[in-house]
Amino acid sequence: RSLDCEAPVICCCFSQTGRLLAVGLVNGNIKLYKPDTGAFVYYLRDSETLKCNLPVTSLNFCSPGTATGDLLLATYASGRVKLWHVSTQKCLQTLLENQETLVAAFNPSGTRFATGGTEGSVRLYDTVTQECLLTLMPSPSPMVMDGHRSRIFA
């Protein structure tokens, strides 16, 4: 069995329960499927993603039962980071980073998330307020190896 995603796939992620498969596409759309049947459920997209038409670079579901609830964290080549409320298909918040954002992940409780990308920094955000709590930067010295020097992919 195969899924017709209608555009090249850049990333994908199963929900924590395994009941949904989110697929990030090169055109900026996110499609959700039921993995047991392959049935298409719905799109996650808004006017910004339709206008930009740049790839979804990573997807990460928030664990069920956390205080933040039914969320999907998505990053885009445009530098956007979007928090989607999955069951209502609504974008709750959009952040714009000054980089091509390539990866993001929630902490286990869902209260914080981190992003990384082409700038080489890791940013830590509060999920509820979307406030940037911390930015971890590589050392400006090429003689110091402090964990990373360039793009962050995973």
Cα(first) to Cα(last) distance is 29 Å
Order of helices and strands: EEEEHEEEEEEEE
Please count the beta strands (DSSP E, at least 2 residues each): 12
- Largest sheet properties: 4 strands, antiparallel
Strand content: 35-45%
User: Can you tell me the residue ranges where pLDDT is under 50 for at least 5 consecutive residues?
Assistant: none
Given the helix and strand composition, which structural class is it?
A: mainly beta
Proportion of residues in helical segments: under 10%
Widest sheet, order of strands: 1-2-3-4
User: What's the mean pLDDT score?
Assistant: 89
Helical segment tally? 1
Global geometry: globular
C-alpha Rg, in Å?
16 Å
Tell me briefly what this model is.
This protein has 154 residues and is mainly β.
What can you see in these coordinates?
It is a single chain. With 154 residues, the chain is mostly beta strands. It is 4% helix and 45% strand. It has one helix and twelve strands, in the order E-E-E-E-H-E-E-E-E-E-E-E-E. The chain has one helix spanning 47-52; strands spanning 9-14, 21-25, 30-34, 39-44, 56-61, 71-76, 80-85, 90-96, 101-106, 112-117, 122-126, 132-136. The chain has a four-stranded antiparallel sheet with strand order 1-2-3-4, with no helix packed on it. It has a four-stranded antiparallel sheet with strand order 5-6-7-8, with no helix packed on it. Strand 10 and strand 11 (122-126) form a beta hairpin. The protein is globular. The mean pLDDT is 89.
Provide keyphrases for this structure.
single chain; 154 residues; 1 helix; 12 strands
